[in-house]
Amino acid sequence: MSEPALSLPDKPSLAVLPFQNLSGDPEQEYFVDGVVEEIITAISRLPWLFVIARNSSFAYKGKSPDLRQVGRELGVRYVLEGSLRKAGNRVRITGQLIDTTSGAHIWAERFDRALDDIFELQDEVASRVAGAIEPRLRQSEIERARRKPTESLDAWDLYLRALALRYQYTEESIREAIALLERALVIDPSYAPAAALIGSCRMHQRVHGLGKVSDTELAEAVRLARRAIEAGKDDPDSLWMAAYTLTFFTSEHATAANVVDRALTLNPNSAHAWMVRGFVSIAQNRSDRAIEALERAMQLSPRDPWGGRAFTLGLAFAHLNAGRYEQAVEWADRSLAAQPDYRPAMRIKVISYAYLDRIDEARDWLGRLLELDPALTISRLKASTPYYPPGYLEGLRKAGLPEG
Q1: pTM score
Q2: Can you name the residues that pair with 87 across neighbouring β-strands?
Q3: What pLDDT score was predicted for residue 293?
């Protein structure tokens, strides 16, 4: 007779099952178990995710259980399972993330590596898996929150709905996101992620011209960011979002760098924290450090559903800042491939072509930009944020953008 099912905890829950050793080599068992243990450790750094302890999940070692039954027995919403094959000095590790309530596959990936340094390989695979599944888990939770009745939403659900709206990049969606976050703070005034995300929303209003942000609203966003840093000092997501707000609205780049470094200490596999480290490094005029951080973000989450175009935009900014204009154009094009009307990427193309003395191309892209935003001027850009990389505004002037 099976044990009674456990109830699901309020926050999302996950079990990492022992990976199957398909190599035919019993000596690989230690390596396989080590990979799983490192994955459990890495994923446990996510404060919003409840991860089942190794002793419980390893009870399924050597078995092929029904994953829905695993979900019921362990009381988890998600299960990560995988396998390892070995051929010569190379190993192939596969993993897949399953929603135990529906049986749906949320994520699957394989890693082919040389078996040179066992511990280094274990660390690398764990880091890559943790970085890749975090945004997929979050997206799955967003979909779950969308299906819940409005009257049943708690602070976490409201935050998730706001997160999805924030990434739609429309004036209406940002307004709705802020309203949901304000509701979340009424339910739980100390809920740091909601406080930090408000600042992120205000920043995107400014960057993308998605409605006016008053001085009062800007000051409130900064106040909430500082509050999030204090209340969420052990929450990496709250910290990197708050750091982004500070570097953008206050130019407190050194403080922001310290805050995002704390986020990365808590969760070194957060692709978005690495992204923010990249943007803060750009603000500090440290282009090489920015490129390293942004490349790390892309390695951790190469198909990130939320940050993909921001990663490539950051790399375009970093190369622009370093005077590598051809590379800046290439990375801006990758952002535009994801969103053809992405204005920050369009501006980088204008500036880069201007500095390459390809004035006709610079003016062509400026014309496209002004079609989307006819009121764009140098003075308006200056008013939108206290910081632009060196040469940014001068490049737009060189292309012909009016002062206003």
Answers
A1: 0.80
A2: 90
A3: 96
